[in-house]
Amino acid sequence: MPISKVRMTKKQKLELTWVGKENRPRLEPRILVEDTATSYHAATRVSENDIFDNVLIHGDNLLALKALEADYAGKVKCVFIDPPYNTGSAFTHYDDGLEHSIWLGLMRDRLEILRRLLSDEGTLWITIDDNEAHYLKVICDEIFGRPNFIANVIWEKSDSPKMDSRFFSSRHDHILTYAKDIEAAKITRLNTNEVASHFNRTDEKGRYYYTKPLRAMGSGDDTREARPTMYFALTAPDGSNVFPMRPDGVEGRWRWSPKKVEAEAEKIEWVKGRQGWSAYYRIYADSSTGRPPETIWTHADVGSNRTSKIEIQALFSDVEQFTTPKPERLIQRILELSTKPNDLVLDSFAGSGTTGAVAHKMGRRWVMIELGDHCTTHIVPRLRQVIDGNDQGGISKALDWKGGGGFRYYELAPSLLEKDKWGREVISKDYDAAMLAQALCKLEGFTYDPSDSVYWQQGHSSEADFIYVTTQTLGPEELAALSEDVGEGRSLLILCAAFRGKPEQWPNLTVRKIPNHIRSRCEWGHDDYSLNVANLPQAEAAPKPRQSGLFDDGEGA
Question: pTM score, two decimals?
Answer without folding.
Answer: 0.77
